[in-house]
Amino acid sequence: MSQSETKPFDYIIHNVNIATLSEQYASEDNPYGVIENGMVGVTGGVITYLGDYDTKVNSKETIDAQGQWLTPGLIDCHTHLVYGGNRASEFEMRLNGVAYEEIAKAGGGIISSVRATREATEEELFQSAAKRLQSFIDEGVTTIEIKSGYGLDTENEIKMLKVAKRLEQEFSIRVSTTFLGAHALPPEFKDNSDGYIDLVCNDMIPKIAEQGLADCVDAFCENIGFSYAQTERVFKAAQQHGLKVKLHAEQLSDQSGAGLAADYNALSADHLEYLSQDSIDKMAKSGTVAVLLPGAFYFLRETKLPPMDELRQAGVPIAVASDSNPGTSPAQSLLLMLNMACTLFRMTPLEALQGVTINAAKALGLEDNVGSIEIGKSAELALWDIDHPNQLSYQLGGNNLVKVFN
Ligand code: DI6
Ligand code: FE
Prior knowledge:
Blueprint: E1 11-19, E2 34-43, E3 46-52, E4 62-64, E5 69-72, E6 74-76, H1 88-95, H2 100-105, H3 110-119, H4 122-137, E7 141-147, H5 154-170, E8 174-182, H6 193-210, E9 216-221, H7 228-240, E10 244-249, H8 257-263, E11 268-271, H9 277-286, E12 289-292, H10 294-299, H11 308-314, E13 318-320, H12 334-345, H13 349-355, H14 358-363, E14 381-384, H15 391-394, E15 401-405
Parallel strand pairs: 1-4, 1-5, 6-7, 7-8, 8-9, 9-10, 10-11, 11-12, 12-13
Antiparallel strand pairs: 1-2, 2-3, 5-14, 14-15
Bound molecules: 3-[(4S)-2,5-dioxoimidazolidin-4-yl]propanoic acid (DI6) and fe (iii) ion.
């Protein structure tokens, strides 16, 4: 049966070079899985044709892409996009030589973002996050993960997650929400971090799960964050409520957090500059994605690189994300992160692009739906005026996005 006898496509895109980023099309000679001068057909938001241009197809709309490049819509799988205020004056103080302790004493640091987030109304948080979100959308981002973690009490964590949900409703983008109550110790629990973890596990997680506000639960496992044992309590509570887990791990020191995350079948472990071989092996076994965050590495002027070769050798999928947050990565560009992943972490342009498409989809558990161009996947696509997809990570600034389909 030819296509003309079946339901017409809603639209076809032809005269297009398609970087599928799909294992089905990739080979040693064609690592991006390119279909040159191809055609994509979409029906009901789903990719229903992928291959050569077929002049006889029946479509309601035909788009001639004039030889431009189509990629999967980009995916930013780690952001803290919703927060009150910003920390530009803290940045300036630091560069004027003011010590971190003094900044903290003057009410700076992460707690200043907590204060500003608590003081902000839902509407104010929505408006400020919407502006940042638009920057990502303008660069072809069609899926974004957004964490809570600047509320640090039940009411304000819920407020943040509701803002993230509203962003999804009002913008043409897929949003994955993550509850990060165990991000920092709120001032009212000073010297009682176990008491705060009680609140996270016994009050916040049950309420957030019941209201369907989070897809996943995250924590900051670090000397200056929460311990291995506290992180494990958060994971247990998350799983009791049917939520997947992920972790900020090994950013500043090795806490074996990524190994713990893998033990709990985490979708991802993120940062990972201080990752051990033992944790790498566990991640490889559990299929936990390594999410690398070059923006935070750059902004903090870190020098210890994540163990790239060991991750590659173990076959751990590697994603790249912006970590967009007011303190350590005030990034509003995922394309810039692609470049930084290459220059700072020595990732290849192919690895970087996989890191914001198929591997980012895996880090969110969405790889059956998005992240590569394949028949049956959701048609969330970005069209670029470029000569080759390696140009996406080559360029420093600028934006060659022509159009998003989603
Ligand atoms: N790691 C970080 O680098 C950020 N959060 C985290 O867990 C810091 C967030 C901030 O300073 O606002
Ligand atoms: Fe983060």
